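User: Quick sanity check before I run a bigger batch. Here is a single chain. Can you write out its predicted 3D structure?
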Amino acid sequence: MSIEDVLEFVKKHDLMMLATVDDNGKPEAAVVEFGEKDDFTIVIDTLTTSRKYKNLQSCNNVAVVVGWDNSVTVQFEGSATELLGPALEAAKQAYFAKNPRAKKWADRPDVAYFAIKPNWIRYSDLNQDPWLIEEFSL
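Assistant: Done. Predicted structure follows.
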């Protein structure tokens, strides 16, 4: 199992669970659409009125789970950065490649985009005996 194999698994999915925390450390989780870049950057959008947006403004540490069908998942932890300017336009391309219907709200002023950079990744396949569990630090 290589990090490239993990990226291929991620590319086969279009939903993930994103966990954030508020100013008081209270957790919040949401299932969100996402896109990814070949460097493992994950791109999401969110309304600026959402809890996750407010949480990301005060604490950019996140946890993510991709996949949950068939006992195979990718978990990672990392940091999220709101995207603006040229970085935003490049990230939107990756996001819309996977989520073309999201283009219809691309220019709404109340939609923000974030790049999530993982620093730890765990791939788990519980269908094998013994289980295949690989961890990667980036």
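The beta strands are 15-21, 27-33, 35-36, 42-47, 61-66, 72-82, 111-125, 132-137.

User: Great, the batch can go ahead then.
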